[in-house]
Amino acid sequence: MRALPPPPGLSPEERTRFRRALARKIVEKRLTVPALLILESIQPISFLSSQVLIFFSPLIETFFSRADWYTLLTEILEDRRELRRLIQDIEEMEDGRAHDPGADPPAST
Fold first, then answer.
1. What is the per-residue pLDDT across 6-24, written as a single tens digit (0 to 9) for each?
2. Residue 45 half-sphere exposure, CB side, CA atoms within 13 Å?
3. What global pTM score does this model have?
């Protein structure tokens, strides 16, 4: 399993790479539905959500030695276009996984 790429500078390419890696992790862990539900519901207040994350960043940095991902996440939430792109990345990757013949079959009911 690959780790999320570190975000030393915030070039558009690095931001895109981080966003796609985050979307891939969400799909791999099969958290697509809860992630989309949360992301869609916070879209109108995404800036406020990012500010709450910034408020808690000293606490997060206390427990995690490398909290660079946290900074990038707050920046994605700050920008509604980036948040929309994250949602689109998750949906596209989930669609690709669903249409992949090697993907796990859905649970039977």
1. 444 567 888 899 899 999 9
2. 8
3. 0.74
